Every structure is written in C-alpha cells, then in structure tokens.
Amino acid sequence: MLPYGRQSISEEDIEAVAAVLRGDWLTTGPAVTAFEEAISAVSGGHRAVSCTSGTAALHIAYAALGIGSGDEVITTPMTFVATASCAAMLGARVVFADIDYSTGLIDPEAVSALLTAQSKVIAAVDYAGQSADYPALQSLANKVGAKTLADAAHSVGGSANGRPVGDLADITTMSFFPTKNLTTGEGGAVVCKDEKFAQRAHEFHFIGLVRDPSRFEITDEGPWHQEVHEYGVNYRLTDLGAALGLSQLRRLDEFKRRRTEITARYNAAFAGVDGLRTPVQRAGVDPMWHLYPLRVLGGRRREIFERMRAAGIGVQVNYIPVYWHPVFAQQGYRRGLCPNAERFYAEELSLPLYPALTDADVDRVIETLLSLVG
Length: 374
Known about the structure:
It is built from 13 helices and 15 strands. By secondary structure, it is α/β, with parallel strands linked by helices. The chain folds into two domains: 11-249, Aspartate Aminotransferase, domain 2 (3-Layer(aba) Sandwich); 252-373, Aspartate Aminotransferase, domain 1. β2 (72-75), α4 (82-89) and β3 form a beta-alpha-beta unit. α3 (54-64) crosses α4 and α9 packs parallel to α13 (359-373). InterPro entries: DegT/StrS_aminotransferase, PseC, PyrdxlP-dep_Trfase, PyrdxlP-dep_Trfase_major, PyrdxlP-dep_Trfase_small.
C-alpha cells in the first residue's frame, strides 16, 4: 500500500539520535534548547516552546492565553478535533465559523458574524499547508480584544506575504508528527510573539514550575528551591526527539521543494478533468503543501476512496467536520451549522504526498485515479 504520508528519515537523522543516546541527556537538555532556538529562527525570531505533540501545543497555547470558563474560542470545523477540544477542555465555549469553500480555510466574514465580547481567541488552521488570512483575522480580533492563534500543524516552513509561519498570528502551534513537514517522532511547539505568553507556555508545559528567585513567594529556602504558582503538566520534549528535529530542519527547504513539485504534477494532471477539482492557492501565500486535498465531485468520493485503496493507493480524508464528533454533537452542535465545510468534507480526498514519493509513484497515483473517474 502506497501511504498518503510518511516520515523521511536519513542516516544523518539516525546518527543525530544515536549521538544523544551516547551522551549524558535523554530528556530535556541541550538538544531541546538548540531545537527551540532553531524553530524560533525559522518562525520570525519569536520564542518557541517545544512539547510532546501538536495537541499538547494547542493545550499549552490556550492555557497560556488564559482561556477558561465563559470564554469563546472561534475556530474552523475543517481540522483535526484537537484544535477545538483543547479549548473546550479548559472550559471555553467553542464557536465554529464556516470556511471558504474554495480553499478549506476559515472565512473571515463568517468569523466577523460570530464575534462577541466573550470572544477571546480566533483560532485558524493552515489547512493543507497554506496560511489563513491572518491580517483580516487580526483586525477582527483587535476589535474585541481577542488574540489570534495559528494552528500551523500543516504549514511549518511556509510563508505569506513574505512573512514566515510563526510570525503571522499572536501565537502559533506546530506539530512534528511523522507525517508532518518535519518530525521529532511525536512532538510540537508553541511560538509566541509576546514574551509574557511564552513564559506562561513554558511554565505550563514544565509542570508549572517557577525557577526565578525574584518571583518566589517562599523566600527562606536554599538554592534548590522551586515552586508552583499555577497548575501545569509535563509536556516536555526529549533530547532524543529534539535531536531528530534539528537534523530534519536542515532539510526543510528540500522537503518543501519536493512537496511543491509533487503538488504541481498533480495539478497539471487533474486540471480540467470532469468530476475533479484541484486545490486553490491563496494570493500571496507560499505554502508548504502538507496535503493534496483533491475534490471528487458528483457524490463519488467514497466510491473513489474505496477503489483507490483497493488499488493499493493509500488515500485519506481530511477531515470530518469537528462538530459531527459525538463529543460535540452531545453538547447540541448540529449538522448544517457550517454548510461550506460539510460540502468540502463530502468531496475531499487527500492523495499521497511526502518527500520520498518518487515520480513513478506520483504517475501511479495519477494513472489510477484518472482510470477510475474517466
């Protein structure tokens, strides 16, 4: 089975991890510090806090922003559930704004219609690898004193209007799962423009520990002392994962080039084909294509999905609208809430896309799909 996504591991990656195993640190140590500095460097120079997954990054980000009971988080339904569930777990009311049907990205006009005094975060998702319209979303957030969050699980390495992912929203979350644009095994990061939020993110992911003596409330202990002012969790990345991530970062441009090449081959093959619709790229965006979200029209998506899988082509669907999940449906969210997202979902089919995919593999995907829709 040709997978729809997979990691790209080199001998250099393996040696980087082996070097950590030969050293003194396994968990959070110098490799984590170096990795966070490297992520900062490709994200506009803002402080980065690494963590154990993209889901952990979202939990950390919402906690750093102080999200709690009574707050509203406006987000897109066209995403993995964690974008919404991590806010809900902190007590927020999740409000779903519809998407732009052409791109799958959250629609600023839909967001505008949902803003209230309780809106605290507008959380966009860089679906498939291209950035949302953050200038429009930031303008809306500023009207009500909210913050913007970029769920950049798909878009690390991309840019918009000359600014890198990580520099487009108040706070950005990243995922380094094996199928993502680079991997630490499991892992993620939070990038914060405001140092106050960055420090809160760091402490939340570090069990809430405060180690700055100037902030201690207990002042008569020795140099070993540390204390907790707010609850936190252990979401710390290991040096093993960070070493892999550092090695992967050296090939980020190469990964982007190959993903762009494959996307262009798919676009050329499927443009104008009856029953198919190729992805639409926003003006000013230089995507790091993580998915190739083809649209299969005419109600044939499931048929084509099953026949592609039967032919050994590991296609995928990304994503079921978040509020269809029973955990949200049981809270009163109903189908029909975001018509564009539901229509998009009914048509979306992700084709294989990863750097190690060969031209022959791409041709196989193209030929198989064309034979099925013809």
